[in-house]
Amino acid sequence: MTQAEIKLCSLLLQEHFGEIVEKIGVHLIRTGSQPLRVIAHDTGTSLDQVKKALCVLIQHNLVIYQVHKRGVVEYEAQCSRVLRMLRYPRYIYTAKTLYSDTGELIVEELLLNGKMTMSAVVKKVADRLTETMEDGKTMDYSEVSNTFVRLADTHFVQRCPWVPVTENSDPGPPPPAPILIISEKDMYLVPKLSLIGKGKRRRSSDEDAAGEPKAKRPKHGTDNKEPIPDDGIYWQANLDRFHQHFRDQAIVSAVANRMDQIFRSLPVGYNISKQVLDQYLTLLADDPLEFVGKSGDSGGGMYVINLHKALGSLATATLESVVQERFGSRCARIFRLVLQKKHLEQKQVEDFAMIPAKEAKDMLYKMLSENFISLQEIPKTPDHAPSRTFYLYTVNILSAARMLLHRCYKSIANLIERRQFETKENKRLLEKSQRVEAIIASMQATGAEDAQLQEIEEMITAPERQQLETLKRNVNKLDASEIQVDETIFLLESYIESTMKRQ
Amino acid sequence: MAGNKGRGRAAYTFNIEAVGFGRGEKLPDVVLKPPPLFPDTDYKPVPLKAGEGEEYMLALKQELRETMKRMPYYLETPEEKQDIERYSKRYMKVYKEEWIPDWRRLPREMMPRKKCKKAGPKSQKAKATGKGASLTNTADVLKKIEELEKRGDGEKSDEENEEKEGSKEKNKEGDDDEDDDAAEQEEYDEEEQEEENDYINSYFEDGDDFGADSDDNMDEATY
């Protein structure tokens, strides 16, 4: 794991789970697999806290355990899974577009809690949806169940590995840790439950919320005295399935853009007849993007979507775009040229790009120094003498993609740090504003006059309001940037993964 | 390859023009300090994508961040002792739901060790549910085994171990319905336990175990 990735993991863990979990998580990412006591010793944390942290990390599928010989259990962190936390908003939003609010909340609960039983999810989601409905209306469990089943059928949620049910034939002492198993055929098997019920509204706790001291924790779980029918059967979000969807979306939208361009150059005809469709497909197949390939003529021609090439095109487009935005359009022209011609000499670049020599050299070296372009040496003589060697500029897409990916991780880490800095700088003001809002809310609930409300609102001065506005705007921008950089990360990672699989 | 350097005159081994500047041309000054932290960029960044989806995801992201902080998975760092103990702090603690992991899915060493055994109301509650075995027993048994192992006692402890292993195995089966109840009793935070107990903590001193006293007696007996 690169330093940039570790740094990003550290920021993510700390934001979501606090410093203790961050310390343990980062330690495991750095050092690899370790047993409990070594972790405690190396991090200088108490055993109790390490256990709590590990429980949280395991619950969220960020750490796995393995039993080694002599009964020693070792814990290993999954760095790439930690990085997925950046993508949670996208997973949830996708679920919303596919399965509307119910689907959205199901996926959100699963992501927030790591793993849950189906009955727990259904109940929680029904409660949440009921809160948003009009008075008197409730969400039925069956509707939520149905959506859950659909999500399972389309593999967006899957079962977690489970403890196998063994008869008590094992006479020896129980193992130090349960061995969890997983079987393909059962992974999306929904247990036969008859969940009957409706969502409940939280009793309006406006009176309770404000000042009631809760010195003792109320016993939770007093609501459900019934046994859990699907106890032990846990579900998690299937991130790979979401990734498949994103990839398909990316390709479709890229093709759609292409189709738009082609369509505009063709005579307008709204009824797409079979012939025209055939034309379209042929165009796509001939298109240099190479998304669609024609394989054979059986059945009038079989068309195949070449996924790897598609991902490669997307990655290349990303690289081109970055070069254009960072170095200018002339640099981008050179970049595209080298990409197209694979290998070019200095002189050839100047000629083809029609850019004066000095500028061309300057641009090439700039791109070279940032590793978008690399040099390929081709010696003419066995002694590799520089005066008798060809130096060719080339773009190695895989290594350029890796370089860009690394920069993306750094970028997001910077974005997060800046956002935390901005928030910290204005902490006092934020707290004041929150207090004022709370006061206003409670006053409104008890029916205060407008004049009184206005008085409270004026506790925040105009320049302070301005400051808050600016802060909000900046934080929004930083957050939105994080989300967008993650899109690029997804594209690049998909391409790199696809390439590595073929090797 | 050591080429012949002409007497005193530098002769390049490669075509100097290919590098990009001619002989004797003025080169840029040597850079004596690290590049600036925030260099000026010639090209301004492209504006962010703005659309319904993006806005929704932004709102989601910020909400998730807040929600995460309130979940039981967010482990607060224990605060350092403050100069003045503020009375109000005690009553403004944020209410956090408790989370008990499913111990069946975790290595045994994950379970927290408790210093004082909870007698009385809690175990009565377990019996009241009508089932014979309960996970609280299992937890205590596990804890005892580990403690005994630590002491490295003689044969007596081994016997006890086997006994307890046997009962534990029995307990593990068909235990599903117990999970919730037992889980409730097995409170994660020791501080909270102390508050909810009616028992005076000084009854049990550190290092002592409720059932351990009998063990000590037995050990002495074997001498």
From TrEMBL, chain A:
Biased composition annotated in UniProt, kind: Basic and acidic residues: 211-228
Family: Belongs to the eukaryotic RPC3/POLR3C RNA polymerase subunit family.
Keywords from the named record: DNA-directed RNA polymerase, Nucleus, Transcription
Residue ranges annotated for the RNA polymerase III subunit RPC82-related helix-turn-helix domain, each copy included: 7-66
GO biological process: DNA-templated transcription
Molecular functions per Gene Ontology: single-stranded DNA binding
Protein name in UniProt: DNA-directed RNA polymerase III subunit RPC3
Encoding gene per record: POLR3C
Signal peptide extent: none
Record function comment: DNA-dependent RNA polymerase catalyzes the transcription of DNA into RNA using the four ribonucleoside triphosphates as substrates. Specific core component of RNA polymerase III which synthesizes small RNAs, such as 5S rRNA and tRNAs. DNA-dependent RNA polymerase catalyzes the transcription of DNA into RNA using the four ribonucleoside triphosphates as substrates. Specific peripheric component of RNA polymerase III (Pol III) which synthesizes small non-coding RNAs including 5S rRNA, snRNAs, tRNAs and miRNAs from at least 500 distinct genomic loci. Part of POLR3C/RPC3-POLR3F/RPC6-POLR3G/RPC7 heterotrimer, coordinates the dynamics of Pol III stalk and clamp modules during the transition from apo to elongation state. Pol III plays a key role in sensing and limiting infection by intracellular bacteria and DNA viruses.
Subunit field text: Component of the RNA polymerase III complex consisting of 17 subunits: a ten-subunit horseshoe-shaped catalytic core composed of POLR3A/RPC1, POLR3B/RPC2, POLR1C/RPAC1, POLR1D/RPAC2, POLR3K/RPC10, POLR2E/RPABC1, POLR2F/RPABC2, POLR2H/RPABC3, POLR2K/RPABC4 and POLR2L/RPABC5; a mobile stalk composed of two subunits POLR3H/RPC8 and CRCP/RPC9, protruding from the core and functioning primarily in transcription initiation; and additional subunits homologous to general transcription factors of the RNA polymerase II machinery, POLR3C/RPC3-POLR3F/RPC6-POLR3G/RPC7 heterotrimer required for transcription initiation and POLR3D/RPC4-POLR3E/RPC5 heterodimer involved in both transcription initiation and termination. Component of the RNA polymerase III (Pol III) complex consisting of 17 subunits.
Localization per Swiss-Prot or TrEMBL: Nucleus
Domain RNA polymerase III Rpc82 C -terminal: residue ranges: 146-261
Species of provenance: Panthera pardus
Keyword Membrane recorded: no
Predominant location category: nucleus
Boundaries of every DNA-directed RNA polymerase III subunit RPC3 winged-helix domain copy: 319-395
TrEMBL record, chain B:
Biased composition (Acidic residues): 174-198, 205-223
GO annotations of cellular component type: RNA polymerase III complex
Superkingdom assignment: Eukaryota
Biased composition regions of type Basic and acidic residues, renumbered to the chain: 141-155, 164-173
Keywords associated with the record: Nucleus
Subcellular location: Nucleus
Residue ranges, annotated region (Disordered): 110-223
BP GO annotations: cell population proliferation; transcription by RNA polymerase III
UniProt-listed Pfam families: RNA_pol_3_Rpc31 (PF11705)
Keyword match Magnesium: no
UniProt cross-references to InterPro entries, sorted A to Z: RNA_pol_III_Rpc31
Family, as annotated: Belongs to the eukaryotic RPC7 RNA polymerase subunit family.
Protein name, as recorded: DNA-directed RNA polymerase III subunit
Annotated organism of origin: Panthera tigris altaica (Siberian tiger)
